[in-house]
Amino acid sequence: MTRAKTPLVDAFLSALIALGLFAPMVGLVTGVGPHGITLTARPRAVLALVAAVFVGRLALRLWQAQRRLVPAAPGRFAISFLAAARYIGPALLAVALVLPALVGRASLDLGVLVLTYVMLGWGLNIVVGLAGLLDLGYVAFYAVGAYSYALIAEASGLGFWSCLPVAGLLAALWGVTLGFPVLRLRGDYLAIVTLAFGEIIRIVLLNWVSLTNGPNGISGIPRPTLFGLRFTAGDGPGTFAGFFHLAPSPAQRVVFLYYVILGLALLTNWVTIRLRRQPLGRVWEALREDEIACRSLGINVTTTKLTAFAVGAFFGGIAGAFFATRQGFISPESFTFMESATVLAIVVLGGMGSQLGVVLAAVVMIGGPELFRPLADDRMLIFGLALVVMMVLRPRGLISVRTPSIALGKGEIITADFVTEGHG
Amino acid sequence: MAYALQQLINGITLGLIYGLIAVGYTMVYGIIGMINFAHGDVFMIGAFLSLIALSGLASFGITAVPLALALTLVFAAAIAALYGWTIERVAYRPLRGSFRLAPLISAIGMSITLQNFVQVSQGARVKPLAPLIPGGLELFREAGFTVLLSWMQIAIALTTMICLAIFTWLVTRTPLGRAMRACEQDLRMSALLGIDTDRTIGLTFVIGAALAAVAGLLFLLYYGAIDFYIGFVAGVKAFTAAVLGGIGSLPGAVLGGLLIGLIETFWSAYFSVQYKDVAAFSILAITLIFLPTGLLGRVDVEKV
Question: B-chain residues within 8 Å CB-CB of A187?
Fold first, then answer.
């Protein structure tokens, strides 16, 4: 580590480096003028950033010096949090169930968005959190689900509920097809290859105009129905409002969509929790902790990984179909790498493998920027920084605990700090 | 024939740029075994630094092209090196000895951060640059098609050669290069033998970032337009080049870069421009599945 520099000198050096980093990139803004590139100087912004780095570094060093005197017990926070989690989970569920009665339509729309990401996060959590496979192309399955639903519904006239499992299964099929050749690769290679596949799918969607209508996307995707009752503006026969003799209101559809995605997300959660208790789920977690040990014990690593990939892809596809039916319009724009990164950020920040963590991370990362509109532009910047800071400070996520999936008597909860990980 | 020759020239030019970026990937992977996902974005920052420097120099009245380019090159390489060093210090060094995916996730975070940092600070618009070195050498004509070797392409080839020569000298002839090669073979043993491994790794990032910045300048000159997103695709392609050449192998990175450049150019010329990225990404997957050690790589024996 660094030799003992006084905090002041250290902060000064950091500020000097920050000056070098920010003076050209922030201080000189390139603009496109009529005669080529123009430069605008922005000294104040640079000064503010450099000052922030100076103060931040100084505070950090002083805080570190302070803390060294009182070492904190590792993971105490996580344990106490998990003890409370027994109540937080049901409480959150109760809030989620009655939310439509509490908030207005706009907030409920945001709730639908957050729940979509919760579902995606839970789906990816199976792959990343449980099986320990870093999938950077999760958006591919989301896209396959969305386009499958849109295209099948358009071609066959089937409704949302009949197409939903088909969309999920098609996404799972893609997961297996893509996964089979690449799952033998090392973890970081796998990450890059999944990233490449995600991009390939997006490029194909963009350019296969005869099937996907290219960059213009597909519009007029059928909306979901409640046992055949439509949620349209009028109150004629066959609509929700007409059947129940209610005044027709667009809010009804939002409430309905909210409960649909809540149900789908809870289904994902339920399946994950059940699978974790089965041999399959236990092997996933064993695989995450030590692949070589698994192989030595005679576990077929490739098929095990493949199942995790397929199950994760299935839920990604279902979330995609829901996305398509909610928007009524999809285009390749919605399925960029940034979407994969967002979902990954939710899983990582939540604490890989923690179901509750995913919910909290999704609420903070999707709900937060929507509530603070001015920050929306910098959202991805904050995402990126959060990923780095998270890895540096708490690499196992906010709620980094390991619960044994099977135990004799009372299961002890331990923090992930006590678990080392093998190679593989 | 003439058309194919022209594509060959274009492909080699592009391949040299990829090769310069790929060296950074392969060096870092060789020493600490991580994919520096943010490397493509350092390349992008290098391109922006070059643009800023060129416009700045023009506004100071330095318009002599060779002088302006030389100053820009030094400036962009220096600042990008600072970026490389800082990224390693902030995002990767604290993670040494953490679980295996932690550095990669951190690198992805860094990549997203850099992209959006540039988008916020420099704007999302595509920045054009008028060609600085126009004209070229007409090699020959055939059936109304002229094979042109532009001065720009010659300049790119020369710059790349010089940079790679300096780099090779650095790695093979200097104490730093020896330390780097030692770290590549066995990090822990090098530390036991008194090599400051943290410093060596930091300098590896510095060198990689400087080369990426040179590639950024060349990219800016060659294509004449950059935006904050160029680093992502170029980064994946350069990584593909590193993998194709055999990750960890320095000549392999340049060879892989040339191959990727040629494949991409010929694919665009003879099949379809829209799917050129699909070609590069598919090569990545195919190489990893069927030839994981690449063309010049060593077989990595994993000890338990």
Answer: 100-101, 104
